Amino acid sequence: MYGRADKLLHRIALGSPALLEATFDIERALHGKQLKTLEIRRPVFIAGLARAGTSILTRLLHAGGDFAAPAYRQLPFPLAPNSWARLGGKRHVEARERGHGDGLTHDLDSPEAIEEVFWRAFEGNRYLKRRELLPIAPEKATLAAFRDYMRLVLLSQGGTRYLSKNNNNILRLEGLASSFPDAVLLHPFREPLQQALSLLTQHRRAVALAAEDPFRRRFMSWLGHHEFGADQRPFRFDGAPEPGEDAGHVDYWLRLWDAVHRALLAAPAAVQERQFFLDYDALCAAPRVYGPRLAVMVEAPIDPSALRVADRREAVADAGLLARAGETHARLHARFRGVFG
Hints:
Layout lengths: L3 H11 L2 H14 L1 H6 L6 E3 L7 H11 L2 E2 L12 H8 L7 E2 L7 E2 L9 H12 L12 H18 L3 E5 L7 H7 L4 E6 L2 H21 L1 H9 L27 H16 L3 H4 L2 E5 H6 L1 H12 L20 H22 L1
Parallel strand pairs: 1-5, 1-6, 2-5, 6-7
Antiparallel strand pairs: 3-4
Helix pairs in contact: 1-10, 2-6, 9-10, 9-11, 11-15
């Protein structure tokens, strides 16, 4: 997708937090009056652990509701989406399969996890460590700036509601819940061993792709994608793998799965009021049952025909880890049933 000139421009634009902040400041100044008139109503934040259907869910919501979401078209200046839209012109790139090799295609206008560039620019020195990602409480000034970022995305696309796909938001849920008291915090999850195996597969694939193309590794890091691959960094929750542990075995990903979901289940009361745990396996198995209920919850029409059940695989994993993750999965499913019936 990127030629030599594109790669150079992305390196300059995305590689410098100072430049990112400068483009954001200019964008806010240019559109300040318009931003004041834009209301942020019931935003949806899809966040959890990767490989739980987050991309498909984001596309289902984006296609059905009047949502605006970050997209590749905003690159390489994602914090200035309106100005770059005028300067960059109406570029066209044919839809192609994404690097995950899972059959999903994307183009410049597909809703994507671009939002993390904002957090990396403004708070990267606090949570983004060399070998792990730390949960933090965002600064009040950063949260205020993030509201303007959301408004800029709404302004650039003409949407009325903001849609976020960003797994790293599990690091800052309390700040998001306090800033957006009507938000939907949607946490999709899958059966632990199957999700762990999917993460392991994607990790190996991403490592291999980065070895073939070093720019790919840098690009993923600029976007704040550390879920798997050559620059994988675990979320620092209790029980998570330590930095430097072998991510080449399914046990690593089972431990991460359990640590992340236990942390989500133990969120403060203010977060729990906005949290919705979505059993993606159940949704795929009974889309006609749970699709309409999800649509009511997020207040947006949903066409669940794109949902698909992933093939089950077998693997040898630590029995103790499987039992512990199974207990966590049962608690997640109970929360899911409590809302979705």
